[in-house]
Design brief:
Elements (H helix, E strand, L loop, with lengths): L3 H9 L5 E12 L9 E17 L4 E6 L4 E6 L12 H14 L7 E7 L9 H16 L6 H16 L6 H6 L6 E6 L4 E6 L5 E7 L8 H18 L12 H5 L7 H25 L3 H17 L6 H11 L4 E7 L6 E7 L3 H15 L4 E5 L6 E4 L1
Length: 382
């Protein structure tokens, strides 16, 4: 990654007053449980978003995305969502929220953004950008905000500005300290807790299937609606979430609700339990048990929640045929996207070689990214 300090200096002819970095996030389990007080097992990655700012003498905001050589501008007095501002809207949302909520003195800013996060893999790049911007404001205005509070503010800022509710999962996971650890995010309590990652011999790779996909929002909304339909039958008063349901209760829905809806609800119910089971397995250093849980999750995404595809299933299945591969599953929104595979360092080349067969069968050239636990949300210069 290029030196963001030098990029900022070249663009604005002034050195940054503050530079921060925020990691990307991958959800290993629990990706589709955020609408029902779910649990998510996530990891902060070595991919990251960096943001540098310097103060201006006016009330203007100048934005520069170094990766795209793209510029945007705004004024503090008239901050509002503009579709054409795309990525700059995220910085604007944080600026607008923090100035209002914390009653800060408005100051114009030069902003430079830089990212090493691959696009289209569901690694939470917008959340990383928002958290980096929020951390910038916390730092330059010397605000006394705890990490979980910062996550809540950043999430609220985006939800208000975009007029759409965003789950807090990514924001909380980004606050994880540096080191080989996972985060368990509890969406009922809106808190995160750390759990030790696998020991050094085990590494992570993300494989982009390169399967073209259109917007999947309508498909995912349908699955959420299916789960809500089951819940409304089981809990007419609406006083429970899927997380509170016993598996036997779903059996009672046979013949009452369409089987498709029951299966999708079953996936969410079991996925929440899988996160707890995986946390327990990691605490006991039962890595084989952890692997079985992750692999079951992929099978459930394929057969019950129905968001996988033949290409993704092939990648996960063939990876598991290699000695030295611990687990492999779909990550992200589904219908294409990527797989996360945990394997030993010695088998990486064999894994890459196996992907040559994938290209011959499906006609897509996959891209493999070697990733590691990230360095956490941090100040680079101030």
């Amino acid at each position: 990654m290029k030196d963001i300090f030098a990029i900022h200096l070249s663009e604005y002819e002034t050195a940054p007053d503050c530079t921060v970095a925020a990691p990307a996030i991958v959800k290993i389990l629990g990706e589709h449980t955020d609408f029902t007080d779910g649990l998510v097992l996530a990891a902060a990655l070595s991919f990251e978003v960096r943001v540098a700012v310097s103060f201006r003498k006016d009330n203007s905001l100048r934005f520069y995305a170094g990766d795209f050589n793209e510029r945007k501008r705004a004024n503090i007095a008239t901050l509002k969502y503009k579709r054409e501002d795309r990525w700059a809207n995220h910085i604007k949302s944080i600026c607008d929220y923090f100035l209002r909520v914390f009653e800060l003195e408005p100051k114009g800013l030069n902003v430079t953004i830089q990212s090493s996060v691959p696009l289209g893999l569901g690694l939470g790049i917008s959340s990383s950008l928002n958290m980096a911007a929020a951390f910038i404001f916390k730092t330059i205005y010397n605000l006394d905000i705890k990490p979980d509070e910062l996550a809540a503010h950043a999430c609220k800022a985006q939800s208000v500005f975009f007029e759409k509710d965003f789950p807090i999962t990514n924001y909380l996971a980004i606050t994880a300290p540096a080191g080989r650890s996972f985060s368990v995010v509890d969406l009922r309590t809106r808190k995160r807790r750390g759990i030790q990652f696998l020991p050094e011999p085990w590494e992570m790779v993300l494989t982009d299937s390169k399967v073209p996909r259109l917007s999947v929002e309508a498909e995912l909304e349908q699955r959420t609606s299916d789960c809500s339909a089951c819940l409304s039958v089981l809990t007419p008063r609406g006083n429970r979430s899927i997380r509170d349901i016993a598996p036997r209760e779903l059996d009672e829905l046979l013949g009452i609700v369409p089987e498709r809806k029951r299966r999708r609800c079953l996936h969410v119910l079991e996925e929440v339990r899988r996160v707890s089971e995986a946390e327990d397995a990691l605490a006991r250093q039962d890595y084989a048990g952890f692997a079985r849980i992750v692999n079951k999750s992929h099978a459930s995404l394929r057969s019950l929640y129905e968001i996988s595809c033949p290409e993704i299933d092939w990648l996960a299945k063939r990876a598991l045929e290699l000695d030295g591969v611990l687990c492999s599953r779909l990550v992200g929104q589904g219908f294409g996207g990527s797989t996360l595979t945990i394997l030993s360092n010695e088998v990486k080349e064999a894994y890459r070689h196996r992907l040559e067969e994938y290209e011959r069968i499906f006609g897509f050239r996959p891209v493999v990214y070697e990733v590691s636990p990230g360095s956490g949300l941090r100040i680079l210069e101030h």
